[in-house]
Amino acid sequence: MNYPLIPPVDLDAANHARIRQNQLTKPPGSLGRLEEISIRLAGMKADPCPSVSRKAVIVMAADHGIVAEGVSAFPAEVTKQMVMNFLRGGAAVNVLARQAGASLTIVDIGVASDFDPSLSGLLHRKVARGTRNMAKGPAMTQTEAEEALVVGMEVLAGVAENGLDLIATGDMGIGNTTPSSAIAAILTGLPVAAVTGRGTGLDDAGLAHKVKVIEQAIALNRPDPKDAMDVLCKVGGLEIAGLAGVMIAAAARRIPVVVDGFISTAAAMISVGLVPDVRTYLFGSHESVEIGHRVMHKHLGLTPLINLNLRLGEGTGAVLTFHLIEAASRIIREMATFAEAGVSDKG
Fold it and tell me: Is the pLDDT of residue 198 over 90?
């Protein structure tokens, strides 16, 4: 499969942003990570004073055959029900996207049940009716995985058609912390138990069973940790592939990607495994309650911007982080320098 070229970050623009930060009416470094964010934005967007006014969220929805093994506290039907809730505007991500002034795109990339084709507001891009049970064999074929990646790239292209400065990734899929934990274990080399959490709220017995099922799936499928496509096909998910495609296409357009929680970060690991330069266009949004999230961030070299004990997914943490990233952008664009303000600099 051919992937788009990822432009290198613009070091000249980043350096100009760093110089401007040190000229603003404040002690150098006093705005902490907001300064770092603005400098990274400048490099990503090749603009010393970048704007992020045009914001969007893409939520990919899909089901997982592994749910048949009892790894989730919720039934698979909830995936479709939550998609309908998104379309009615009643989910947490709807509320937070409205607050952030971000558009919201919902994609059926692999929900196991069908939707009315005339349903307004839903992108019908179903690759398959969920993945297969990875405890019995590969989750999907390479053809399906590649098709899902292409769907993600095409959806991003459509959302960006009229201009886009910042994209957040979101997910919906009952059971999707299970493939995400498998991806984390394989790509970090850590034991499954070290990266697997309770997902939607499993008790101790349920968590132990989930770990055992993931171990079984990895032992059976033997994914190659050096081959991200092999990992994706054998233990991944359609929404994970779709989000990886979104990230690749965004990076190719110099659009910064705000990675949401555990599932989105699994997708980020796949995207970077497929196209390593995507890494330079990623912001880690938050540190999830899921125990594997921290090691996933370490693997990617990301430091999340907030920690609110979130574990919902949907893109909620990423959309909350939009506010901090926009604040960083506004600081460098709108704050006066010492010379502009007529304020004496130090020394």
Answer: no
Residue 314 annotated to the active site: yes
Same domain, 120 and 231: yes
Regarding whether 270 and 143 lie in a shared domain, the answer is: yes
Task: Give domain status of residue 222, yes or no.
Answer: yes
Burial of 157 (0-12, 13-18, 19+ CB in 10 A): middle
pLDDT at 347: 57
CA 276 vs CA 216, 243, 249: distances in Å: 29, 15, 13
**Active-site residue among 144, 146, 147, 314?**
314
pLDDT tens digits, 225-244: 999 999 999 999 999 999 99
Radius of gyration of the chain (CA): 20
Q: Mean pLDDT across the stretch 299-326?
A: 96
- Rounded CA gap, 278 and 273, in Å? 9
105-134: string of b/e by CB count within 10 Å (b at 16+)? Answer: bbbbbbbbeebeeeeeebbebbbbebbbbb
Domain count, the chain: 2
CATH of the domain at 222: 3.40.50.10210
Owning domain of residue 178: 55-325
- CA–chain centroid gap for 158, Å, is 18
User: Per-residue pLDDT tens for 122-154?
Assistant: 999 999 999 999 999 999 999 999 999 999 999
What is the arithmetic mean of pLDDT over 306-325?
96
- Give the separation between CA 16 and CA 29, rounded to whole angstroms: 15
